[in-house]
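Researcher: I'd like a structural prediction for the single chain below. Treat it as a standalone chain; there are no partners to consider.
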Amino acid sequence: MTRPPIGPATRLCMSLAARPGRFGSRFHNALYEALGLDYVYKAFTTTDLPAAIGGIRALGIRGCAISMPFKEAVIPLLDGLEGSAAAIDSVNTIVNDAGRLTGFNTDYTAIATLLDEAGIAPSTPFLLRGSGGMAKAVAAALRDRGHRAGTLIARNAAAGRPLAALYGFDWAAEATGRSAPLIINATPLGMAGADPTALAFDDATIAAADIVFDVVAIPIDTPLMQAAARAGKRRISGADVAVLQAVEQFVLYTGIRPSAELIEAAAAAARAA
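Model: Treating it as a single chain, here is the predicted structure.
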């Protein structure tokens, strides 16, 4: 199919991030093209979050993906929260229904799906690094799967300690000297444009793990993923999170669930140089 020419009836979807990437735009637009939908997707950043959210409402923008550092700050600007977004107090998706803005969290869905697909038992101890919106999504997914033996690693005690307590996990400022079969990075460490060479866990912690999960999507092969590969560990990539959560956003915006073949093709197009 061919997407109709852009015109007055075209529906706009967008993203807001401190460092806008190209994956979301390419992924969504590839699916719009494949399905012949009169939609277009564009990435933005902002220094005025209230004005940006007001623009979504005023201009009838259908949906907006929310990335760091706006996942929590956006909540007071919305009309309501659904499902996991309400439960974990973090939003990565806004849907506009006739001027009513509702927050969702599709990160939670993606993370839970990947943990299930990997066959990770709820009894598996873990180390989770991070205390922001993505860490909340991971912590909630772990708790809801039945995980109890875990430690949240966050240097910011004011954020990390209460987050760990909320989900029933331990807290520590550093991972050094700690180990677990499952280690998860939910920080920007290793992200292109932020901390591109930083390693979220040291070599000893990686060596002691069985499974290494990095939620950073760009680059696909983060320093943590490279170190895990060298150590021969099972890996779960942030690129997989990016695809799964974007699919759920697409469904929320359009009401259409693409086939697995279309998703795979759109993901390949989005990752192409």
